[in-house]
Amino acid sequence: MPMQPIPKADLIEIFSSIQGEGVLVGFRQIFLRFPGCNLSCHYCDTDFARTATCLVENRPGSGELKSWENPVDFAQVNKLIKGWNAELPGAHHSISITGGEPLLHEPLLLSWLPELRKILPVFLETNGTLPDQLEALIEHLDWVSMDIKLHSLTGERTEWEIHRRFLEIATQTNCYVKLVVGEQTPDLELQLAADLVSGVSRDIPMLLQPVTLDNKIGISTTRLLQMQALIADINPNLRVIPQTHRFMGVL
Hints:
By secondary structure, the chain is an alpha/beta fold. It has a domain at about 15-180: TIM Barrel. It has 8 helices and 12 strands. It has helices at about 75-85, 105-115, 130-135, 150-155, 160-170, 185-200, 220-230, 245-250, and strands at about 15-20, 30-35, 55, 65-70, 95-100, 120-125, 145, 175-180, 205-210, 210-215, 215, 240. Strands 4-3-1-2-5-6-7-8-9-12 form a 10-stranded mixed sheet, with helices on one face. It has a two-stranded antiparallel sheet with strand order 10-11. It is globular, with a radius of gyration of 18 Å.
């Protein structure tokens, strides 16, 4: 039986940079940014609209970008990543599948991820609201970075039970949970999030990420420490990590 062709994809960016968030902060990754999102968070700093072209680094880490016409052929992406991995052996920890919300592209990722994983481990960054799509892909993922979207910051309803189901699936691989917080984040939201995570497993790392406004942390250190103290006993794997890539000025 002939193999089905791997479908093309609309992409926004392909680049090599330092992971600036979460438990893998400081590791270098190859980023594939997919368009589209099912949420409209107030603090979002990413333009995830579909574009006619995909911006691709000329050389890994150069910051010099060229354009590829969308949709992009998988063979072209695969060749690029293999080339970068050969050019800089050991430099990249993993391939980051990011967006927007990449799980909106679940049928395509079912074809792409098994092949990409032959080159490097695969890391998914997600808003944690599409559990059915995650379940279809979980066997092809090495890391899941899941947000719990708090109403106080996003303006969107927090889907607690959907987040819970999502996290239960994510625990089949390496995973952690990230909360973007600001001065307006109430204690009750933090406690609900911490209880949700610990209810699935107290071993899941949980991160407070202060919202970034104009490349500055948009919350006082005093309030951050209050938040940490409030939920540290609920989740012993709690850390506070800002968006370090914003301060470094990298892609």
